[in-house]
Design a protein that fits this description.
Layout lengths: L1 E6 L2 E3 L5 E9 L3 E10 L6 E7 L4 E3 L7 E6 L4 E6 L8 E10 L4 E5 L3 E5 L2
Parallel strand pairs: 2-11
Antiparallel strand pairs: 1-3, 3-8, 4-5, 4-9, 5-6, 7-8, 9-10, 9-11
């Protein structure tokens, strides 16, 4: 089994910055893709950014130029540096990982961390 634990959410003023972290632990052979998604009440979960183990990134248009995804493969950890935050970035942010375990490949989700952008 694999666990994803997120941290770093909170309340920030518009224009401010936050950094989210997500550490994966458990029976991990390799992690193909790690990423961040977000969800607001009444809406579907949406992609924010993903990063492959080869270094390829994908960002939603709404965060390009403001958010940066990175990962520490040795620590099985992914980060999301968020800058120039806007009220519309307010959401629960979820970490996601495509993991090869000891016997199978699966996609895992973290429990979510709240990000609130408000003055």
């Amino acid at each position: 089994q694999v666990q994803l634990v997120e941290s770093g959410g909170g309340l920030v003023q518009p224009g401010g910055s936050l950094r989210l972290s997500c550490a994966a632990s458990g029976s991990i052979s390799s992690i193909y893709v790690m990423g961040w998604y977000r969800q607001t009440p009444g809406k579907a979960r949406e992609l924010v950014a993903t990063l492959t183990n080869g270094g390829s990134t994908n960002y939603s248009d709404s965060v390009k130029g403001r958010f940066t995804i990175s990962r520490d493969n040795a620590k099985n950890t992914v980060y999301l540096q968020m800058s120039s935050l806007k009220p519309e970035d307010t959401a629960v942010y979820y970490c996601n990982a495509d993991v090869r375990g000891l016997y199978r490949r699966d996609v895992y989700w973290g429990q979510g961390t709240q990000v609130t952008v408000s003055s």
